[in-house]
Predict the 3D structure of the following.
Amino acid sequence: MTLTIRHETILTPYRDPFRIARSHGSGAGATSVLVELRDTADGPDGHVGLGEGYPDAYYGETPATIGVVLPLLVAAAEPFGEGLRGALVEARAALVGASHAIEEAIRHHGAAKCALDTALHDLVGKRLGLPVHRLLELSPVIPPTDFTLGIDEPEIVAARAARAARFPALKVKVGGPSDLATLEAVRAVYAGPIRIDANTAWQPDDGARLIPELERLGVELIEQPFKAHRLDQTRWLQQRSPLPIVVDESSVTIDDLDGLVGVCEGVNVKLAKCGGIGPARRMLERARELGFRRFLGCMEETSVGIAASAAVASLADWIDLDGCLLLASDPFEGLELGTDCRWILSSRAGLGVARRAG
Ligand SMILES: [Mg+2]
């Protein structure tokens, strides 16, 4: 074995309390797992690949499951070690091969896979002196990110919306009795598009009743109104809704896409669900082939996870990559948000982020 991985669980407080319809915790902070990948063949001063996997209990992951699964995934990637040390074309092929081997090593565990896949891309990018998006031959031109507001009292959400006025779109978490009051309050202080996300909490009656109001309020899209497996309800609402419905909890990996044709107009792809940079690229490309509108989302990752997502963001129509902006502090630096709210894909090698000193 030449690949070695070290992982660390970090808890970072949120800037503002952050709750969604299916939250269990206090909404006080984000727990994420950071990894450092080394290749002993590079010697003691070799590059370190950074990765992040955000464990979401809804998808069956915790920091402990990530810790248990990582060695199995590293063993699956190990046969590609020599290819990963090769020149560009060979290394690119090895990244794809390793990503398939990681996928086939165990079902589910998207965040654990994401942590390793991201670290492999960062390591190869650093070795070759290429930023990840160039390693993948992807465009650095990406859509601007929206900014997400968690569930709270309508006037509190509106105050946060006013503070976020520079963002070209807001994503408002809904899924409770105050949904309409919240959206009215946000609309009173914010003129741009509003995207809403019910995180599975609505019943079909809620959707049918709210749609005319959502249209009036300038809502741009409705994300995951119903339970993940209730594609029948989602299809029913999409047939009655002039607004696009985007699924998130129903679109975990590329394998979910074919079954969503005719159900909804859009899918939300996240690295932490599907397994990292390589799988997200394939899922976004397949979603485009199937005619879906593509939303690239995130969990509440640090800028390691957000930089990894930004590398494939040119393949999406809408971007919700604000995880690290929701945190009170980010342990990493190097990822900059432009004045137009587009992440700037740097020319630095790999992900272009490094641990903050001190
Ligand atoms: Mg969502």
Remarks:
- Residues 3-135 form a domain with the Enolase-like; domain 1 fold (CATH 3.30.390.10).
